[in-house]
Known about the structure:
The structure holds two protein chains of two kinds.
Chain A: E1 4-7, E2 10-13, E3 19-25, E4 31-38, E5 42-49, E6 56-57, E7 65-67, E8 73-78, E9 87-94, E10 104-105, E11 109-113
Parallel strand pairs in A: 2-11
Antiparallel strand pairs in A: 1-3, 3-8, 4-5, 4-9, 5-6, 7-8, 9-10, 9-11
Chain B: E1 5-7, E2 10-14, E3 19-24, E4 33-38, E5 45-50, E6 56-59, E7 62-67, E8 72-77, E9 86-93, E10 100-102, E11 106-111
Parallel strand pairs in B: 2-11
Antiparallel strand pairs in B: 1-3, 3-8, 4-5, 4-9, 6-7, 7-8, 9-10, 9-11
Amino acid sequence: NAGVTQTPKFRVLKTGQSMTLLCAQDMNHEYMYWYRQDPGMGLRLIHYSVGEGTTAKGEVPDGYNVSRLKKQNFLLGLESAAPSQTSVYFCASSYGQGVRETQYFGPGTRLLVL
Amino acid sequence: ILNVEQSPQSLHVQEGDSTNFTCSFPSSNFYALHWYRWETAKSPEALFVMTLNGDEKKKGRISATLNTKEGYSYLYIKGSQPEDSATYLCASLWNQGGKLIFGQGTELSVKP
């Protein structure tokens, strides 16, 4: 049982390049989330999904797109990377929407945009 | 959007000290308050989920209380150990759809 995994662990991009971050979970969770973590700002929700084929915007969605074609995978895309997107990206998943549902986090992807 | 505040931002204590820190959140439309522990180079891990006013949770030397009427939660660590060094995050559930709004965290450093 691997839990939540993220690919890649680290990436350097040039401004304007595109990339996709992959999140995979093997816990059969319905909900999946993408966060970014910046110094002094905690975790901020980018996009989330409440089930296969669905996505919704979080607090800071601009510049990102997501897709949830399979229940176990949640992809985060950057179409044209900007230095402001330099951050550590965390994926998380949870079983359902109950108020007591905890989120399980992946190990993070460190992205540097030059 | 909810504003969740944590204080202090960082805390340095000696091994054996007891410590506590605060999470403040809007008390209106409250659903749940989560605490996570985040060690350097690892993923955040859930500590507690609290939903009821007056809730108290305990896991080993770590405990938490919740006051939903005034909008705060305290996390206590009794007899801090170096392995308690981590960032402690609280998060308030924005709505019943599972969206958490995180505070900026309290970074705890315990010196032997």
